[in-house]
Amino acid sequence: MTVPVVHGAPGNAVARVRWAVADGWTITLRDLAHWARKPAQVVVGLLFPVMIVLMFGYLFGGGMAIPGGGDYREFLMPGMFAMTMVFGIETTFTAVSTDITRGVTDRFRSMPMAPSAVVTGRATADMLNSVVGLAVMMACGLAVGWRWHHGLGAALAAAGLLLLLRFALLWAGVCLALVIRSPEAVMAVQILVWPLGFLSNVFASPATMPGWLGTLVEWNPLSATVSAARELFGNPGFGGDSWAAQHATLMAVAWPLLALAVFFPLSVRLYHRLSR
């Protein structure tokens, strides 16, 4: 009887990093292959925010007033870019929890692969998907009249802040999946995601809201990213006299970094404790 030999991690630090990167990329390719086999699901996910843009931009946009004036669709698009990043939590949650319930994650854990490969591979695949989703939304924005006005460098900086938000929320989705472990619980995740999205400055200015609600909206992490993106793109915004409104770019960096500091190590710890 032949007993297979399971090789451990390389002893050299550089070799361990290469090992982790190679295994993580293998998992990324596996996740991308799953999407390639289900193109309808990917297309629906990309078109849903486009439908929201058309609905709010054309059906409700005529009744929206922006403090200081400006085109509502230019006001709306940076917010919709951020909403697309937030909606990605549901995709991450469903994919990770499905792998757990089907035993795929345990199978990976039993293989001679880098311990970080499963979560980093998932994260890389989701970030690639997010880049495509953001590109589709920007194309949609250009089609409905949205433009950036402060040059390509500022536009790329705004896109970077949006993807930073997605990267932070991605680990929140991984953490929730490792805790709940049930794909059917995605409805519970939506209950958390939708208030985060709609209790923000995406669709309306906090100046038009009751005082307590406007303050809550201004301190929403999503509002910070949206305000910073509007400023960098040169699109209409609401301004505001609060500290959060005056330091939107700083908050757009600080909130995601804080989320990463909480959810990334927690996700790694929960993943290592899956089978205990």
Automatic annotation (TrEMBL):
Subcellular location: Cell membrane; Membrane
Domain ABC transmembrane type-2: 40-274
Membrane spanning residue stretches: 40-60, 80-101, 131-148, 154-179, 191-213, 248-271
Keywords noted in UniProt: Antibiotic resistance, Cell membrane, Membrane, Transmembrane, Transmembrane helix, Transport
Record's bilayer topology term: Multi-pass membrane protein
PANTHER family assigned to the protein according to its UniProt record, in alphabetical order: NODULATION PROTEIN J
Similarity section: Belongs to the ABC-2 integral membrane protein family.
Protein name as it appears in the record: Transport permease protein
Native source species: Sphaerisporangium corydalis
